[in-house]
Amino acid sequence: MLREMVRDFVSEFVEPQALEFDRDEKFNLDLLKSLGEMGLLGITASEEHGGAGLDVVATVIVHEELSASDPGFALAYLAHSMLFVNNLEFNGNDSQRARILPKVCSGEWIGAMAMSEPDVGTDVMALSTTAVQREDGSWVLNGRKMWITNGCLDDDGTPADVVWVYAKTGTDVKGKAEISTFLVENGMQGYSVGQKIMDKTGMRASNTAELVFEDCIVPADNLVGEAGDSLIHMMRNLEIERVALAAMSLGIARRSLDEMNKYATDREAFGRQIRDFGQMQRYIGESWAKYRAMRAYIYDTANNMGLGNAGQRLDSDGVKLFATTAAKEIADAAIQVMGGYGYVAEYVVERLWRDSKLLEIGGGTIESHQKNITRDLAKAPEVIND
Ligand SMILES: Cc1cc2nc3c(=O)[nH]c(=O)nc-3n(C[C@H](O)[C@H](O)[C@H](O)COP(=O)(O)OP(=O)(O)OC[C@H]3O[C@@H](n4cnc5c(N)ncnc54)[C@H](O)[C@@H]3O)c2cc1C
Question: 217: burial class by Cβ within 10 Å (0-12, 13-18, 19+)?
């Protein structure tokens, strides 16, 4: 039922705008807000606060369906519903949940998550944004965050209504950074957009921004958990983020395969359908097998994954590692099968190909997944023979 509902919504409202918003590098804020009426903005949030209370499988279905049409729009949805809303549901306290979840589940507020910085991405523990507590308990944040999806909501510098910000609040006895999480809201002094990042290769229908925190005053109540607690927040949420990004890859793969398969029937050359040529069969056949393998691994992982607990990194990294590159390869195969038509926007697959590349970088690079998997298999080699 959920899949059908999202598919209907996508064909009526998402597909007709996808080409234009990619071409113009515009974010369709109203369309994102309208997902609130369907209960999708708080898909994993508790029903008492306006969420849908659904699980990881439901999350995968929604990301797959949105991304099969408009991955840029799906990325904005992911940043809001997973990076902000799901994070708050599982890591915030009761009063933060009661105050903020109804606003972000309805779409009144749009959220973002700010981890990356101009000089720090993969090496997140080296982040340089600081938060210092004042005598009255409030905090002062200083630093810049880079590449923040939904960081700005328009081209006029309106920042996300609320952003989940990681900052350094100290150093432990071993000299390791202590990271804490703050809920920064639009209107708080010292919080602004540095720039909307333009000319992206893909995901152009989502806004990506640099955010500036300059002596930004954050009330004590907006600290999430205890100071220095954030590593566990980060790990919990990165796992669901990676599965959702893999689900976006699945949507790209499915659509690319569908487009190339239809085209291979319609197009003739040398008096035959191009699907009769062995080289075209290799593109289609291999894409089908990769698509089915992605699908099985992603839904299997989603079925076994709990929300809100860490410790499922082998497969959250595994699905993203496999699916993102497979989606890029399948979109590439689609362009090749469709020849010159595949290379222009009207035929969709060139946009999917551009969008797919981000998925090998955002939410952790494919190299970081290789590193994590190899590290985790050293700790628990028995899982290989389970
Ligand atoms: C469109 C877009 C949207 C984004 N949205 C968000 C967002 O909403 N919130 C947010 O916080 N961030 C966001 N990001 C940032 C994204 O998560 C980072 O770009 C990503 O984590 C990589 O960091 P980096 O770009 O600093 O690259 P770096 O970490 O500098 O990496 C550069 C290269 O070095 C490699 N490398 C680094 N360390 C190692 C290592 N130990 N071993 C092997 N190779 C290594 C990397 O794999 C990569 O190939 C977004 C990025 C983009 C482009």
Answer: middle
The Cα angle at residue 54 between residues 109 and 80, in degrees rounded to 5 = 25
Question: 36: how many CB neighbours lie within 10 A of its CB?
Answer: 20
Ligand 1: lining residues by beta carbon, under 6 Å? 79, 83, 112-116, 121-123, 147-149, 200, 203, 208, 358, 361-365, 367-368, 371
Could you tell me if 50 and 102 are in contact, meaning their C-beta atoms sit under 8 angstroms apart? yes
Strands 111-114 and 162-171: parallel
- The domain covering 2-110 belongs, at the CATH homologous superfamily level, to Acyl-CoA dehydrogenase/oxidase, N-terminal domain (1.10.540.10)
CA-based torsion, 177, 183, 188, 193: positive or negative: positive
The string of pLDDT tens digits covering residues 7-43 is 999 999 999 999 999 999 999 999 999 999 999 999 9
- Please check whether residue 21 is in contact with residue 154, taking contact to mean a CB–CB distance below 8 angstroms: no
307 has a pLDDT exceeding 90: no
Q: Whose CA is nearest to atom 44 of ligand 1?
A: 367
Phi, then psi, of 55 in degrees rounded to 5: -105, -170
Residue located nearest, by CA, to atom 38 of ligand 1: 122
What CATH code would you report for 231-381? 1.20.140.10
Q: Pull the structure tokens for residue 135.
A: 């005598």
Ligand 1: atom nearest CA of 206 is: 1
Backbone φ and ψ of 148, nearest 5°: -90, 110
Has 241 been annotated as catalytic?
A: yes
Q: Are 151 and 112 in contact (CB under 8 A)?
A: yes
